[in-house]
Amino acid sequence: MFYAGIDMLFSILFPILFLVVLGMILYTIIGNISTWNKNNHSPRLTVPATVVAKRTEVSRHHTDNTMAHTFTTYYVTFQVESGDRMELTVSGSDYGMLVEGDIGKLSFQGTRYLGIRAELNIPVQFDKSEFTGGKLIEN
What we know:
Layout: H1 2-41, E1 44-62, E2 68-80, E3 85-90, H2 92-97, E4 103-109, E5 112-118
Antiparallel strand pairs: 1-2, 1-4, 2-3, 4-5
């Protein structure tokens, strides 16, 4: 008698739980396809922008008791001439090359980062003797 109640409860809850998980998976897939499609139909723009902030998001996924995978997502916030800011996902190598305060021409398509071309050239001052083996050579 007691087991009959558990069987009935399981036969009701399992399909509901299955449909909820399936719905979450479908919602994620449809959302990603929608974003991809919107980005593909957006124009490619190149505008002057400044790097104003950087951040990372680290997520861990445990597959079992012995294995864990870590994923890092890199974000950079750009400010355009109008004062508007946009946060775009960038690759790890681009994240490492960008510094807050960098100025350049930002290329993007919707929410997809395409790249940035530096525009600001700052002269670097150095001691010439560092490159001539300690002997100062005058030009």
